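Support request, please re-run this one:
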Amino acid sequence: AGALDLDDTMRVICAYGRLITRLSDRGGMALIGLPWDGAGAALSGFEGRVFRAIADSAEATVLAGEPAALDALVEAMSRQGVFCRRVAMNVSPHCPLVDELRAELHERLLSIRPRPTTVPLFSEVTGAEIPGESLGAEHWVRNFGDPAFFSRAVDALIRRGHRVFIDVGPH
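Re-run finished. Output below.
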């Protein structure tokens, strides 16, 4: 959307990548076929080990957490007839398990200089339209460790009349 130039964009990507690899194999993610609130209720007994990470859609939530706890949760949900499967990731962003990296990420991104966007920008951090100038270090630290409200951002776009969406991801 033009909020970051190429150098700053690469600074964010590289900082995320360098830091999250420190936590390789200490976390993971799973997709559960429950809305945000229902997924929260399903975490009973897994407090502090599994977290709601991404509000993916009205009917699905991505969880992040410790690998053994995620495996146990996936098994328990499957026995109850709730769709739940692991996602091919060995890290757990968007939850407290990355809190130890927040200060260093912030420090690494202090030099980025966001600017106004050339098109409207909707953030998964807030689930709403945001100005490009707000994409400083604080925004990217929140994007890294706070839950992501992807479905809220998509809903806001739908309310604006958008009907076609393309999901681009690493898998």
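The two ends are 23 Å apart (CA to CA). The chain is about 35% helix and 15% strand.
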